[in-house]
Design a protein that fits this description.
There is one protein chain. The protein has 239 residues and is mostly helical. It is 70% helix and 0% strand. It is built from ten helices and no strands. It is globular and about 65 Å long.
């Protein structure tokens, strides 16, 4: 009897995890079909044949669900770009930057609703937690980009140094994280990392929102050239 009782919590936990995953899946489907504002706990409950009260035992509010979704998709994105980066040797900073950028585009095209949830228009009425909906994923993404530029900085400095850059240009939290990890890195390198992010993100956002289609028949080639130009601007060889 005790062995059966011992198994019950594990089964309940599995069922709860399965139901939570289904709620998230349906929420993303509703978002893909009707936009982020369509995410509604009651609408999801109806589709799952759950009572309105039952679904609130999984997520207290719609904001909690949206925060969980953002955390999931942002973590998946960072996992993808980090994995791609790590397939390239550490002594090839240009290759690692290119791999990160290519993985960003590949993941985003495969997960357009996730990209829009992270980087698109704010969801009406959504109030994220004080530290953001996905603080750990955001930290990994930011420090990952800074790390890429840090590895390239010995070469990039001669071309990209900015004497006007100051630590006061950035948030205290970002400064603390960067200086803890790489105390010798100057603020100009952090500015370059943010600009690098912008160059990678910009063309992907234009493509996903349908702005490149009428003008560019091969957005993949356009993006690849942008990455190669970025790498060369750092004084690194681009393959």
């Amino acid at each position: 009897m005790s062995s059966v009782e011992d198994r019950k919590p594990g089964r309940r936990a599995r069922l709860r995890a399965q139901t939570t995953a289904e709620i998230k899946r349906i929420a993303l489907e509703h978002m893909a079909e009707q936009g982020a504002d369509a995410i509604s706990l009651r609408a999801i409950a109806r589709e799952m044949d759950m009572s309105g009260s039952a679904i609130y035992s999984y997520f207290d509010t719609r904001d909690d669900l949206i925060s969980a979704l953002i955390g999931d998709v942002y973590t998946a994105l960072v996992d993808a770009v980090e994995a791609a980066r790590d397939t390239v040797p550490a002594d090839d900073p240009g290759g690692r930057i290119t791999a990160w950028g290519e993985a960003l585009r590949t993941w985003s095209l495969a997960n357009p609703q996730g990209f829009r949830l992270i980087y698109g228009d704010p969801v009406s009425g959504y109030r994220p937690p004080a530290d953001g909906p996905a603080p750990e994923a955001a930290k990994r993404a930011c420090l990952g980009l800074v790390g890429l530029i840090s590895a390239a900085w010995p070469t990039a400095r001669a071309l990209q140094d900015d004497p006007s850059a100051r630590w006061s240009d950035f948030s205290d939290d970002l400064v603390a994280k960067v200086r803890e990890r790489d105390p010798d890195l100057p603020p100009a390198a952090v500015a370059l990392a943010l600009r690098t992010w912008g160059r990678m993100h910009g063309l992907v956002a234009l493509e996903l929102h349908g702005h490149l289609g009428p003008q560019a028949h091969h957005p993949d080639r356009l993006y690849r050239r942008e990455l190669l130009d970025l790498v060369r601007s750092l004084g690194l060889p681009a393959a």
